[in-house]
Amino acid sequence: MTNLKIADRLGEVKEYYFSKKLAQIDEMRRAGFDVINLGIGSPDLPPHPSVVEALYRGARDAHTHGYANYKGERVLLEAIAGWYGRKYGVTLDPSREVLTLYGSKEGLTYLCQTFVNPGDQVLVPNPGYPAYAAAVRLAGGVVDNYRLTEANGWLPDIDELERRDLSGVKLMFLNYPHMPTGTAPTAGLFERFVDFARRHDILLVHDNPYSFIRNDAPQSLMAVPGAREVAVELNSLSKSQNMAGWRVGMMVGREDVLAAVLRCKSNLNNAMFVPMQQAAAVALGLGDEWYAEVNRTYRSREAWAVRILEDLGCTVRPGQMGLFEWGRLPERVLAAGTDCYGFIDRILEEKKVFLTPGGIFGSEGERYVRVSLCADEATLQEAWARLFK
User: Fold this and answer.
1) What percent of the chain has pLDDT over 70?
2) Within its chain, how far is the Cα of 130 from the centroid?
3) pTM: predicted TM-score of the whole model, two decimal places
4) FRET pair for 155, CA 20 to 30 Å: which of 16, 54, 64, 267?
5) DSSP state letter for 183
């Protein structure tokens, strides 16, 4: 077809940065180069053995191979509600306030497809997860960035937001612990934004996949009184249960929002393989020792990630959460006219170590780089040795 054209809805949406970069790294490896990837937050550790055993057991059952319930199987819906009750102190009705997803990224897309009309505005953090802006643009919406700066502790400036004309804003994405900066939610932050969303008639979408990583006090926005009137929360087993490739996520909260999203989801996708849901339910039932062990591992790696950044001349804020360390590029690099992309590409080309340029998360990240903790200490040490010996 000579006149086959890409649909207008793709607009400014480009191929995901990591999709392209991983292809480049694969090409380098095929050419014989040993590339160390410290870019992506894909846990290198396996799920608990009981989770894998539950998948195996379920797959052997001849009755589990048909289509699953669009909303999710009862076993997983109840496990999610139980997990929220035990870990966050949030009571959820599994029949009405829980929806399963193929990872929380799917939820971002469905929310925008369900609620955002062409021209509707959506408040998106800058820096922030690139999938937020992509989901908005694919729905024909307008990305309205709100700046997060190091000077303001990487927190939203609610006073600045209040001064805006918000009459065209339909949704707001919020994400704490924040990716990519690792910033923890401060006391009262969630309460202020639930109130903000209520007063401006905005659907608040809290993306919460990092709450258990390097954090001993996980929080949910849904614990705030009144939150389920104005908000939904996305969560995932990718990080906290080491199940990134399984694509098990959830949306919880406001009942009518979940029902509307299900209208969209049920026309575009089915629920995940039943044995995967059964195994995910087992994962959500793991005790505190699971999370403690995961965090011991990441905290043991943290020092090497910080050392890499600081020896590169970067400034690293202490107390970061999540799967990454975020560092500000040294002034000498910036003064020389090198941006984060050039800095990262030079390291990849010369040292065969891949770090993440902060600019992919928005203009406010252009002076920063990120190191993933999803590599063992030996790999982090080898990366340091390549960079500095």
Assistant:
1) 97
2) 9
3) 0.93
4) 16
5) P
